[in-house]
Amino acid sequence: MFKLFVRKFLGGVSLKKKPSDLGEKKTIEPSDKHTVQKERSFNLHNQRVDDVAIPKADIVAAPDKITLSELTKIFRESNLTRVPIFKSTLDNPIGFVHLKDLALRNGFGKQKKFNIKDLIRPLIYVPPSMTLGTLLQKMQAERIHMSLVIDEYGGVEGLLTIEDLLEQIVGEINDEHELKEDLLWSREKENVFIVNARLNLEDFKSQAGVDLTKRRNGEEYDTIGGLVFNITNRIPSRGEVVTDSSGNEFSVLEADPRSIKRLRLNLRS
After folding, report:
1. 57 backbone dihedrals φ, ψ, rounded to 5°
2. What is the CA angle 219-224-229, rounded to 5?
3. Start-end ranges of CATH 3.10.580.10 in the chain?
4. How far apart are CA 29 and CA 41, in angstroms?
5. Where are the beta strands (DSSP E) in the chain?
6. Distance CA 225, CA 260 (A)
7. For residues 206 and 173, what is the distance between their CA atoms, to the nearest angstrom?
């Protein structure tokens, strides 16, 4: 019920942001599950935080002088539940604001005077060399679920949340507000679609009547994410717009250093 109220307050923002694979999801056979579990356990105890952290350039953050309407807009557009707060620059972080706290204090038609200092929670600051397992234990012990990776000069290098760490153990975590497996696209308006990067090109063609398969030219990919990756030969950043040879625009709505997640497709008229 609380999540419903929060979503109403922010005009339909999802409460969590979760990554998805660039390509199609693969079914894990029972015989392979033990191997996968061992690999994930190995990653947890051997991977460093800088191996999986969101890079500084992709961090969505807000200044401590931000207004209520500006902060609400950031939460709505970024689809995040936690936003780091900084003084002057991101290299001077002072904590983070949780969507839940903002909604409880300033949502539901409340007229309380907005003071961001009343909402700021502490962050965890960690070196790039810390292992994922150590950070997970630290988050659990301190009950703080967002961390910033700090380089040797004291600057911010990256960001990790507890969800990022858990996905290294259990795999992808789907949010209840994300598109279902059988509904990986939605029509926003005429010739504009919101699509999951896992959306199969043939499925999109049969369901929406949009044929992007002819642009493959023999290339080995089957999904929207694969198509965009083939155009750029890299993982594009959130906010980047990729244009194919026909003039169709793919605006990256969600992505992390490892995968594209969600895009807005604007078909050329």
Report:
1. -60, -25
2. 60
3. 2-170
4. 18
5. 54-55, 62-63, 82-87, 89-98, 124-126, 146-150, 156-161, 185-189, 192-196, 241-243, 249-256, 259-266
6. 6
7. 28
From the options 3.40.50.11900, 3.30.465.10, 3.40.50.2300, 2.30.29.80, give the CATH code of 185-266.
3.30.465.10
Tens-place pLDDT, residues 185-240: 988 888 999 999 989 999 899 988 999 887 666 566 889 999 998 899 888 888 89
Question: What is the residue-wise DSSP string for 166-183?
Answer: HHHHH-----TTSPPTT-
Selection from 206, 240, 229, 217 nearest residue 58 by Cα:
240
pLDDT-derived band at 8 (thresholds 50, 70, 90) equals: very low
d(Cα 18, Cα 198) in Å, to the nearest integer? Answer: 13
Is residue 11 a contact partner of residue 76, using CB atoms and an 8 Å limit?
A: yes
Q: Which residues contact 87 (CB under 8 A, 6 or more apart)?
A: 63, 64, 93, 94
d(CA 168, CA 39): 9
Largest alpha-carbon pair distance within the chain? 59
CATH superfamily of 2-170: CBS-domain (3.10.580.10)
CB atoms within 10 A of CB 19: 20
